[in-house]
């Protein structure tokens, strides 16, 4: 009784808090963690009916908690002080005025299209994990159209800044986040057979590499020095002082993602090495294996702006790993994990790192260290010719995979 009431009051309080933050990324994070907290029926219904309230305007755009239009979440300069990645922050940071004429008309059309997609984006994040896994891919075709619009809009808005593609970077960022989330949900709901893990980590590496390049394209536009300083830890405090709060926040996120990318790339190589050694029973040849692979990643068929990663690509990678000596491959995996660990250690030196990022950093470091220790056990067992098994789970943090030797 009392516990139930306290839980409900706390959940409603958290909904009121997020209603005061008029930008998309905190809302997505909140939606994901809110569902993980297993809300009761009352609070869940309250959030579902209020996050985007009302019947909507002529374009179907509704109001965010019945007070802000969806347009405000996408492009309103008065909110540009919030340190989150968005078009309005990009325009402010690079001193780009709101457009006029045809460019303004195209911008308004893009906002309407983006608003409709992002309403559905957030609503799907409020579904339970099984429904998220089933429904995310229904938005990929809409995102592909939106990416095309963003590309044309960037050419109009920033024609005097040839390499400025902020709308495309922002839209692509949200698409990749959803695709990565959909893959990782398979670990949470225990969807994958162990023989599929090497494939999944291979595809996850492909998506994370695009995510990393997308962020790097944005970083290059405002701070090459800081990105380099984070990698080698030299001149970190001096480089940081040159950045605005928004730029620092974005760079911290980028480096956390890069550390996760290095760690996942290491785990992808571990999984394929273990498959090559028959520790993971992987059926890698014949039409059955190809059909299983294509069926598993059929969810990405509608993401037209991203080339599909074919079964032949994985098989080529498998044979490359198989042709290497195990000790050489394990040495290269250790280097990847160490690269991720170095970034996290350098980030940990930053004195004003926000609390939520410190918490994520701590979990990523735990994943990296646990996976490194497990890799050492794998190495020892392979050298000794012992039988053993492994597990790839996301129990430490649902957005990242960890290796454990059983």
Taking strands numbered 1, 2, ... along the chain, how are they ordered across the largest sheet?
1-2-3
> Whole-number radius of gyration?
22 Å
Mean pLDDT: 84
Q: Which structural category fits the helices and strands? A: mainly alpha
Tally of DSSP β-strands: 5
* pLDDT < 50 runs, ≥5 residues: 77-82
Beta fraction: under 5%
Largest sheet composition? 3 strands, antiparallel
* Helical residues, percent: 55-70%
Descriptive notes:
The protein has 406 residues and is mainly α. The protein contains 17 helices and 5 strands. It has a 3-stranded antiparallel β-sheet with strand order 1-2-3. Helix 7 crosses helix 9 (166-188), helix 9 (166-188) runs antiparallel to helix 10 and helix 10 packs antiparallel against helix 13. The two termini are 40 Å apart. Mean pLDDT is 84; it is low at 77-82.
Write the layout of secondary structure elements.
Layout: H1 2-18, H2 24-36, H3 41-50, E1 52-53, E2 63-64, E3 68-69, H4 70-74, H5 87-93, H6 101-125, H7 129-135, H8 140-157, H9 166-188, H10 197-219, H11 224-232, H12 236-240, H13 245-276, H14 286-296, H15 311-323, H16 326-348, H17 355-384, E4 390-393, E5 402-405
Antiparallel strand pairs: 1-2, 2-3, 4-5
Brief characterization of the structure:
With 406 residues, the chain is mostly helical. It is built from 17 helices and 5 strands. It starts with a helix and ends with a strand.
């Amino acid at each position: 009784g009392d516990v139930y009431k306290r839980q409900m009051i706390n959940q409603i309080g958290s909904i009121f808090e997020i209603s005061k933050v008029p930008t998309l990324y905190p809302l997505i994070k909140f939606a994901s963690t809110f569902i993980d907290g297993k809300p009761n029926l009352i609070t869940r219904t309250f959030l579902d009916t209020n996050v985007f309230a009302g019947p909507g305007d002529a374009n179907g755009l509704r109001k965010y908690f019945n007070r802000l239009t969806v347009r405000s979440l996408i492009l309103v300069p008065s909110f540009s002080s919030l340190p989150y990645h968005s078009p309005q922050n990009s325009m402010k940071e690079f001193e780009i005025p709101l457009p006029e004429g045809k460019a303004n008309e195209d911008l308004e059309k893009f906002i309407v299209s983006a608003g409709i997609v992002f309403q559905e984006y957030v609503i799907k994040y409020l579904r339970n994990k099984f429904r998220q896994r089933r429904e995310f891919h229904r938005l990929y075709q809409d995102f592909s159209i939106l990416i095309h619009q963003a590309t044309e809009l960037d050419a109009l808005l920033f024609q005097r800044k040839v390499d400025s593609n902020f709308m495309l970077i922002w839209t692509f960022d949200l698409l990749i986040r959803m695709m990565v989330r959909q893959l990782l949900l398979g670990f949470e709901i225990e969807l994958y057979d162990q023989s599929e893990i090497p494939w999944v980590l291979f595809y996850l590496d492909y998506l994370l590499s695009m995510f990393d390049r997308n962020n790097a394209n944005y970083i290059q536009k405002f701070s090459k020095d800081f990105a380099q300083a984070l990698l080698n830890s030299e001149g970190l405090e001096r480089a940081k002082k040159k950045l605005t709060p928004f730029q620092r926040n974005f760079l911290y996120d980028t480096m956390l993602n890069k550390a996760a990318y290095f760690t996942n790339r290491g785990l992808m190589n571990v999984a394929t090495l273990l498959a090559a050694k028959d520790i993971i029973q992987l059926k890698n040849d014949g039409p059955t294996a190809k059909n299983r692979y294509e069926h598993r990643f059929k969810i990405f068929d509608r993401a037209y702006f991203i080339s599909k990663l074919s079964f032949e690509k994985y098989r080529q990678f498998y044979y490359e790993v198989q042709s290497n000596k195990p000790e050489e491959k394990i040495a290269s995996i250790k280097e990847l994990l160490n690269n991720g660990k170095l970034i996290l250690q350098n980030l940990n030196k930053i004195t004003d790192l926000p609390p939520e990022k410190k918490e994520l950093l701590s979990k990523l470091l735990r994943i990296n260290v646990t996976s490194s220790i497990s890799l050492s056990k794998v190495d020892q067992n392979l050298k000794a010719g012992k039988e053993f098994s492994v597990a790839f789970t996301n129990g430490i943090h649902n957005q990242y995979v960890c290796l454990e030797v059983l």
